[in-house]
Design a protein that fits this description.
By secondary structure, the protein is mostly helical. Helix content is about 80%, strand content about 0%.
Length: about 55
């Protein structure tokens, strides 16, 4: 399993806690290459809404 797929699974599991969600998102962004980070951003917006990015 690649990091991008793994990050999506983990982010869905911690989405009950906004602070934890943002913390995990930032950790994954540090590990991903730029194209994968863009994919993760798009996925987060579609999954958690546009306001997610303003919190991150």
């Amino acid at each position: 399993m690649d990091i991008l797929t793994y990050s999506k699974i983990i982010l869905e599991k911690v989405s009950f806690d906004e602070g934890l969600l943002v913390k995990e998102y930032k950790k994954f962004c540090a590990q991903l290459a730029e194209p994968e980070k863009a994919d993760l951003d798009e996925w987060c917006i579609s999954t958690f809404g546009q306001k997610f990015i303003s919190r991150a």
